[in-house]
Design goal:
With about 300 residues, the protein is an alpha/beta fold. It has helices at about 15-20, 30-35, 45-50, 55-65, 75-85, 95-105, 140-150, 160-170, 190-200, 205-210, 250-260, 265-275, and strands at about 40-45, 70-75, 90-95, 110-125, 150-155, 180-185, 200-205, 220, 235-240, 275, 280, 285. It has 12 helices and 12 strands. The strands form 2 sheets. Strands 1, 2, 3, 4, 5, 6, 7, 8, 9 and 12 form a 10-stranded mixed β-sheet that branches. Strands 10-11 form a two-stranded antiparallel sheet.
Length: about 300
């Protein structure tokens, strides 16, 4: 299904969403919030949600509502999931569905929800030595970069962006390597700065690129689906609680309160309203007239014993 802005269901209240997320016990009165007041929720999340300033902009509302604090730890998706796997997180917000599904299949995550989306873009210098500007195919653009031996900076950190990049190279039928291909093992901001210094190409999520565009000389050369580019560059985000049955130290009640809050209409509106340099960075999709129930389980799961 092509990316599109979801229509919000105004009739649904935040309390109803919180209830469906499993946190009605924490739903609103002083007696309920007193049970978690003073606690800290540990959120492991991607560098893109943190570096763009989105979480700083919206978390004060949740912290005030429940009298708690949120410790947002910014890592690549792979590292964020690994922290949760090790019991060092209560809730995870990431953007690599394949890695999320593996996390859930292995029993570490529960109650996954679709949260929001933006897209990936291929950025590079205006001189565009590989001649990819305006290409309608992301894989053709990567093939052109490889054929030209033009410098490409890869995050190389098992993040959601790195995972997407590797999937794109595979779809292009190209095994990147050589002096032109540089894996730096770092976050998106550092990758953009590195590419800027070298006049190189890189794959970026749109939100982080927008938030840093005024500080770098790179430009978007291949658009994602938000600007009618290829659907393969879609970038959906999901959120899930750490399974308390695996890690009994996980603050499951507070994690579910957070999931209920961040997927509620009010917070989804706040996500939609968040802008940088006059541009929207993330597009909410937790509230929809046509909810996708496949969001709660690994893709392809049917509940049959044959899936085990």
């Amino acid at each position: 299904m092509p990316i599109q802005r979801r229509e919000f269901v105004a009739a649904l209240g935040a309390g109803a969403i919180a209830s469906t997320a499993g946190c009605s016990a924490l739903g609103g009165g002083e007696s309920e919030t007193a049970g978690v007041a003073g606690e800290t929720l540990t959120l492991t999340t991607t560098t893109s949600t943190y570096d763009t300033g989105l979480l700083d902009a919206i978390h004060a509302d949740f912290e005030e509502m429940y009298g708690v604090s949120v410790d947002a730890v910014a890592q690549g998706t792979g590292a964020a999931l690994e922290s949760a796997r090790n019991g060092d997180s209560d809730v995870v917000m990431v953007h690599a569905r394949g890695l999320e599904d593996e996390f859930m299949r292995n029993g570490y995550g529960v109650n996954r929800r679709d949260l929001m989306f933006n897209d990936f873009v291929i950025v590079g210098p205006e001189s565009d030595p590989a001649g990819i500007q305006g290409m309608s195919s992301a894989t053709d653009a990567l093939t052109a970069i490889a054929d030209a031996g033009a410098t490409f900076v890869s995050r190389g950190d098992n993040s959601g962006t790195h995972t997407k990049e590797l999937n794109l190279w595979e779809a292009a039928g190209t095994d990147p390597g050589g002096d032109w291909y540089q894996e730096i093992g770092a976050g998106m901001g550092e990758a953009l700065n590195n590419a800027n210094q070298q006049g190189a190409y890189t794959l970026s999520d749109r939100g982080t690129f927008i938030s840093q565009r005024s500080e770098i000389d790179l430009t978007i050369l291949v658009q994602g689906p938000i600007e009618d580019g290829p659907e393969i560059l879609a970038n959906p985000y999901g959120i899930m609680a750490v399974n308390p049955g695996v890690h009994d130290n996980a603050n499951y009640d507070l994690a579910m309160a957070y999931i209920g809050w961040i997927t509620s209409p009010g917070t989804q509106d706040a996500i939609a309203d968040y802008q940088m340099n006059g541009e929207q960075l993330f597009f909410p999709e937790a509230v929809s007239e046509n909810p996708d129930f496949q969001q709660y389980v690994p893709e392809g799961w049917s509940g049959d014993s044959s899936d085990e």
